[in-house]
Amino acid sequence: MTSMELLAPAGNWDSFIAAINNGADAVYIGGQQYSARQSAANFDDKQMKEAILYAHLRGRKVYVAVNTLIDNNEFSSVLDYLFELQKAGADAVILQDMGLLNAVRTIMPGLRIHASTQMTIHNQDGAAFMLRQGVQRIVLARELSSEEISAISKAADGIELEVFVHGALCYSYSGQCLFSSMIGGRSGNRGRCAQPCRLPYELYSYHDKNKVGLPRQGRYLLSPADLCLIENLPELRAAGVSSLKIEGRMKRAEYVAVVTRAYRQALDILKENPGYRPGPEVKERLLKIFNRNFSTGCFIPGNNEFMSTRWPKNRGVCVGQVLDQTRAMITRIDLIDAVNRGDGIVVGAGQDHACACIIKEMKVAGENVAEASAGDTIEIRLEGQVFPHDQVFKTHDERLLAEAQQTIRGEVAPRIPVDAEVHLAPEQTMRLIIHDQSGNRVEVTTKNQLQEAEQYPLNEEILRQKIGRLGNTPFELRNLTLSGDMNLMVPFSDINDARRRAIELLTQKILLGKQTVPPAPWQYWSGKRSYLLPQPADMRTPKTLLAVAVSSVEQAGTALQNGADRVYLGLEGLGTHHHLQKSQLHELLQQSPEYTDRLIPILPRIVKPSEHYSYRKIIEEGFKSIMIASWADLEWAQHSGLNILADYSLNIFNHYTLRYLCQKGVKSVCLSPELNLNQLAGFENLNQVELIAHGDLIIMQSQHCMLGGVQAPGKKTCSLSCRAGNYYIKDSKGYEFPIETDGDCRFYIFNSRTLCMVEDLVRLLALAPASIRIEARRAMNEGLGRTIQIYREARDRIEDGSKPDLRLYQQELKTISNVPFTKGHYYRGVI
Question: Which pLDDT score, from 0 to 100, does residue 537 have?
Answer without folding.
Answer: 73
